[in-house]
Design a protein that fits this description.
CATH topology: TIM Barrel
Structural class: alpha/beta
Low-confidence stretches: 1-27, 382-387
CATH class: Alpha Beta
CATH superfamily: Glycosidases
CATH architecture: Alpha-Beta Barrel
Number of strands: 11
Bound molecules: (3S,4R)-3-hydroxy-2-oxopiperidin-4-yl beta-D-xylopyranoside
Order of helices and strands: HHHHEHHEHHEHEHHEHEEHEEHEEH
Shape: globular
Length: 387
């Protein structure tokens, strides 16, 4: 198997060396996710900073065996890449693009413009005064151009704007919105359309896409862009979901409403929070965090009782029944992480909690939820729905 370090050093040869490691799946006895879901949608996972700075990280085995698409957890966000004016930290983003190209994986540029993990300097001049609309738009264009020049040949799908719409359908009062105005998202897509290669797919991405106000506003926005000739190529539903929320019906309703605009749906950040969030749902990263304690962290040793494991598998099966039913409208389903060990839900919204959110456990083994999805996909193959 070719590892990350080699991937970077052999980058110029990557076209001829791509996919030299096809045998891994054959060495394993279990089915692979990407084979089970072939012809339905791409299946993705997130590479985090630990993986991107350790070419021997054990997650690479699972990625190469089971996944056909990758997203960077943090390495391509504005802050981590460009923490100060003129200071660029590109090692992890470069490693991500080199690895994905070398492995022949679909790659997502996550994310060009987001109110979170964007440093204050972006919105200020050298004296700390707020930028003008024109100056901020120029700064956004500069970032899009840099991304296009450095990664545009290999990364073909971009989360252009992340989370600019509130649950009630209003524009989020972010610094982008305050300086640019209500057309921030439209301007961002115009910039992306002009700066990224013509074959780049441009996505709008958000959480809690089953909120009535938000989904209506997203549909209206996509239609508005289409009428104005502003390119938009997909709608990203993050999919940071809980054990009972949102309901399968609401997920289905959003997929149908979004698909009606004519662009495909991407499930971009799927995880299911087994332990739950008492006080809210969704993935609003702006909320404060609390500390883990005995009450909110019941499986601190990482071992889940069998009945909980089953409950978790049932919920994944419920979600995938909807996704598989509408696979003709869905281009990709990406999990936000690889194993439970690297899920962000161990840190958010409760710091230091041992959470269970993904298909592989802390020993890198497939969980019952994994097998349920594989079974369901096989069944959907043999019993196609009327649609
Ligand atoms: C998360 C990362 O996984 C964490 O490591 C980081 O501390 C916060 O951001 N919505 C998004 C993702 O679009 O970028 C977020 O990722 C999770 C919520």
């Amino acid at each position: 198997m070719i590892r990350l370090k080699q991937a970077i050093t052999t980058l110029s040869l990557s076209a001829s060396l791509a996919i030299a490691s096809g045998s891994l799946a054959e060495q394993r006895s279990e089915p692979t996710l990407k084979e089970a879901l072939e012809g339905k949608f791409l299946v993705g996972a997130t590479l985090n900073g630990w993986m991107l700075s350790d070419s021997d990280h054990p997650a690479y085995d699972l990625i190469e065996t089971h996944f056909s698409s990758i997203s960077p957890a943090n390495s391509m966000k504005w802050g981590p890449m460009n923490p100060q004016p003129g200071e660029y930290k590109l090692e992890q983003a470069d490693a991500f693009a080199a690895y994905g190209a070398q492995q022949g994986l679909d790659m997502i540029g996550h994310t060009l413009f987001w109110h979170s993990q964007t440093p204050n300097w972006v919105f200020e001049d050298s004296e700390g005064n707020p930028l003008t609309r024109e100056a901020l738009l120029a700064r956004m264009r500069e970032r899009a151009r840099m991304m296009a020049e450095r990664y545009g040949d290999r990364i073909k799908t971009w989360d252009v704007v992340n989370e600019s719409i509130e649950g009630d359908g209003s524009w989020r009062k972010s610094k982008f919105q305050q300086i640019i105005g209500d057309d921030f998202t439209e301007q961002a897509f115009r910039i992306a359309m002009e700066e990224l290669p013509a074959d780049a797919k441009l996505l709008y991405n958000d959480y809690s896409m089953t909120d009535e106000g938000r989904r209506k506003a997203v549909v209206a926005m996509v239609k508005d862009f289409q009428e104005k000739g502003v390119r938009i190529d997909g709608i990203g539903m993050q999919g940071h979901w809980g054990m009972s929320y949102p309901s399968a019906q609401e997920i289905e309703k959003s997929i149908l409403m979004f698909a009606e605009t004519g662009v495909p749906v991407h499930i971009t950040e799927l995880d299911i929070d087994l332990l739950g969030r008492d006080h809210f749902f969704g993935a609003n990263v702006d909320i404060g965090r609390i500390q883990a304690n005995e009450e909110n962290n019941p499986y601190a040793d990482g071992k889940l009782p069998a009945e909980e494991e089953e409950r978790f598998a049932d919920r994944y099966a419920e979600v995938f029944a909807v996704l598989l039913k509408h696979s003709d409208k869905i281009e990709r389903v990406t999990f936000w992480g690889v194993t439970d060990e690297d899920s962000w839900l161990n840190f958010w919204p409760v710091r230091g909690r041992t959470n269970f959110a993904l298909l592989f456990d802390r020993d890198y083994q497939p969980k019952p939820a994994f097998y349920r999805i594989v079974e369901l996909a096989a069944k959907t193959n043999s019993e196609p729905t009327a649609e």
